[in-house]
Fold T9SS type A sorting domain-containing protein.
Amino acid sequence: MVRLLLFLTLVLSIPLASRGQVTVSVDPPTFVLTGNPTQTDVSYHVQVTNTSAGSASIFWSKRMSNNPVPWTSWICDKNLCYLPEVNSCPPLKPNLLGPGESFELQIHMNPLQVEGSADYQVTLLDDLGNSLYVINGQFLISNSTAVKETNETKLSVFPNPATDFFKVSDIPGLNSIELFNIVGNKVRSFEAGPQKQYYVGDLTDGIYLVRLESAGGKVIKTIRLSKR
């Protein structure tokens, strides 16, 4: 009995860090995101790296404050681009990282034609809900900001709403298309092709996320699709 008590005392006295405490690094740690109110997707990418000695499950929560009412914001992580109403990483979809591995956390915002500014905060958490890092940022949306016309901004899905099929505007580098439902489950995969139609007529009516990917698996853009 004495040996058992001594063993428990030694275990409980071990520093938390030596029990596999999760640590991360973030680059950049803060950000300022500028854009024009005519843009529908103003985004910023942050690199999150697991600096722990072991594997880690990384979760996140987001909060936008002092913003104009129409503004919407959403997060894309290692697994999925979520709808604006999702304010935290689902418990069953952690970002799994091995030691030294990284993933790109994408912060997106649609100003909906309204100028203004807002404070933004993304908190990274471990699987116990402990805060690992707080990323602070600011959105600055003004008509004085020039709009850069890139291939990414020209991407579109049509018709939207879709009934039987949808198409994607042609762009070099588009290799595959993944379709997710609103709870983050993949429901369909397509190989992309010029002027190709993608059938969705047998799917349940509702909102889906169309993820456009390059040949290397990099997410080019995620677009919301309404199926009716």
Summary: The chain has a mean pLDDT of 83.
